[in-house]
Amino acid sequence: MFLFLGACFTSSVSAQVLATGETGGQGNSAVLLSANGIVPDGLGLLNVYGQYVYGVTDWLDFGPIYGNVSALGRTQHYVGFGWNTTLLRRNHVGVDVSFFGVATVPINKRNEASTVFTAPAIVVSRPVTVNGKSVSLYSGLNSNVPVGQRSDKLFTPPETVWNVPIGASTAVSGSWLLFGEVDVRNGVEAVGLGLVRTF
Question: Which positions make up the signal peptide (predicted)?
C-alpha cells in the first residue's frame, strides 16, 4: 500500500507532513489532495494543494506540488516538489522512519514570501489494528525553513519554526486513503486532512 501521502506542504507559516515513515515502493504512484487550516500567532491561513507522487525506488518517493495559501483576503500560488526517503524499516527496528521534505517557490506575490520555503522532517510511524481496521499512526519532528528574503512576510515565517506532527492514515475504500494531522508547537498550530488515490 502506498502510504507516502505527499508533502502536505504550505508556502505559509507552517507546513504539515501528512506522510508516514513508509515509502510507496518502486513504480507505484499516488495523487494527494489536501486542505490545511493554520493558525500561527492568531493569524488564520488556509492552504489547499495537490501533489503527484512517484516511487522512484523502494526507498524514495518524489513528486511535484502545486497549491495556494490564503490569508487576510490575499492568495499566493506556489509550485515545488516533495520527497520521502526511507531511513529505517519496522522489520529491523519496530517502526518505520523516513526523511520527508518539501521545497516550494512562490508564483505570485513573491515580495510577501521567502525566496524558497522548505519543510524537512523526520517521520516515525507504525501501523496498528483498531477494531479490525489497519491505521498507521505517525509523529516526528518537522521544521519550516524560509530561505532568502524573510522579514515582514505574510506567507512565510521570518525564521525556522519547529513543530511536532501527530497524525493517522487509513484506507477508506480500495485504493483511497484518508490522512488527518495536527501540528503542535505551544498548542495546536495546524490541522489538516488529506485524501490520496493510489495507482
Answer: 1-15
> Do 104 and 120 touch, CB atoms closer than 8 A?
no
Which H helix or E strand runs over 92?
helix 90-93
User: Cβ distance 47 to 12 under 8 Å?
Assistant: yes
Count structural domains, the chain: 1
Return the beta strands (E) in 29-107 as ranges: 29-38, 45-57, 60-71, 74-88, 96-106
Of 83, 102, 74, 79, give the one whose Cα is nearest residue 15.
102
What is the spatial distance between Cα 191 and Cα 183, in angstroms, rounded to a whole number? Answer: 7
- Residue 116 domain-assigned (yes or no): yes
| CA pair distance 41, 180, nearest whole angstrom | 22
Q: Is residue 111 part of a domain?
A: yes
> Can you tell me the mean pLDDT for 15-19?
77
How far apart, in Å, are the Cα atoms of 73 and each of 43, 70, 101?
A: 12, 7, 28
The CA–CA distances, whole Å, from 136 to 124, 155, 168 equal 10, 31, 5
The model's pTM: 0.87
What separation, in Å, do the N-terminal and C-terminal C-alpha atoms of the chain show? Answer: 10
Asked if the structure places residue 11 within a domain, the reply is no
The pLDDT tens digits of the residues spanning 57-76 come to: 999 999 999 999 998 999 99
